[in-house]
Amino acid sequence: MLHASFPAGPRRLFCVLPMVLALAACGGGSGDNADPVVATPTTPLTVTGTAATGAAIAGGVVAIKCNGGSDTATTGADGNYSKTLAAGALPCVLQVTATDGTVLHSLATGSGSAARANITPVSELVLAQLSGGAPASYFTAFDATAAAALTADKASAAVTAVVATLQAAGVDLTATGDVLTGALVAASGSTAGNAFDQKLDALKARLAASGTTLATLAATVAKGSPAAPATALSNTPSLPAEMLLQPAAATCSALRSGRYRVVTNGSSNKPADGTYDTEVVTLDAVTLQVVHADLSTDQLTANGNCRFKDTDGGDIVVSPAGVIVFQAKDGAVFRMGIGFPEQTHPLSALAGDWNSLQLERTSDGGPIVLTNATWTLDTAGKLTAITFCENGLDCESGTAATAGFPVITSSVNSDGGFNWGNATDGWTERTFLYRSGGGELLRVNLAGAGSHLGLSTRKVARPLPETGTVSETWNITQNNNYTASGVSESKNTIRSIDATANGFLRDAVTNFTTGATRPETFRINNPRDGFSLRVAETVTASDGSSSAVTSFIALGLRGTGVSAVGFPGNNTLVLSVSK
Asked: CATH topology for 254-341?
């Protein structure tokens, strides 16, 4: 599928750090906590609007909660409502309960004595985006503090985000005006709906065709909102909102039509020409046709549930979050690649603590080895702290306070994603982000000239699993020459938990024909929070044979259904994809 030009000449992500961290050499005001001051309303406030889902919501009860006052209204046969609050001021939040039990929410901001607020499935999504949570919960909890925080700018930003999400999913609201205040004529009786109302019909049709409910879509929008707290994000792999409404492949509900960012770990022996092995492809999930940036095409062939072959015979597997792991043909061999729906993120999305795992060179001309790291970026995308470990074992740490700490920064790249590098040392790499349906971010870093790719996830301590949990995965393995094998399969069951040792014992299938298993011991949050370590030991398998368990370091890429697994003993990297 996912071929590219394979430029080469490896560079490594941390190529300036050896100078500082003794790694291998490399060339070349007050009152913030005060209660909000909210003026007491002294004049009447009139709130009007239309409640509709494509058809008018007739006889719906509209509950209106404003700054300093609340009241109710009832919609007419055309879905319109109007209410004057004797004492109330903007902003307001609204809830309509239809006669069939449908409940939707909306909001109104600004100032003055009159406001309009349409109540539709789109406004439900807007309130989810604005609050980063359930619209019903936001409505229930709305008080003076929430009113003080609800500004017109925040509402406008939420509208913009939702309109962009729906446009990416094929529902274009850009010509209908403001979705909260625009003219909405709902279909009722002999009255046909206007263009806005027809877009609500289109959204309803998209939801039905994709098998997605509005509640699921709203919850996904909320988790992708900047307002969503980190504690609300989900590690369960799922699709982002813009993909939930897209057509799905017949054999894989996680593979949807759309534009995908494709990143390939290129050849290790080509000239350093400064190019990057990445492109954006367009996938038709129904026909399984891939159109590349140069307009050439590939035809995928289903090879089981969420498993495919491309034109060159490369294996492709898809996680429940729509992340594609694949083999890309490069001459006589295959390279490892990863693909995910193309998204746009602000530079501030890079901020925080990240864990990473990758194969790379840690010195010019040196061997390709396994490395892992934990780093911190500020809201401007600047590196402020790092722990970097070569071969998973030898670690060095530094912070921005360390003398000579390298100035590694990020900037937006007009071709997608970000630049990541050190201007003084003259190297730049590409970084891409993918936010899954649970709100978690995957970061993929790509070195120039076809060299290594790095995989990063938010640093979060891993909880112990539950006894009896069964995991089944596909695995694509990349060796220390950047050559990728075909897909293998794994299955394991958690046998017991050892809370004292912060670990667990699992039974891993070693022979799918006989069903033989062997015990494997793990330590979680080792070597650091978010990682896990399989302990090297010799064990007795269920068939009585002796089995040598080798050590590996695993990093679950949160919310994606993919884990990066590194074997320090032979410097190989496995991408393990949940079935």
From this structure: Lipocalin (2.40.128)
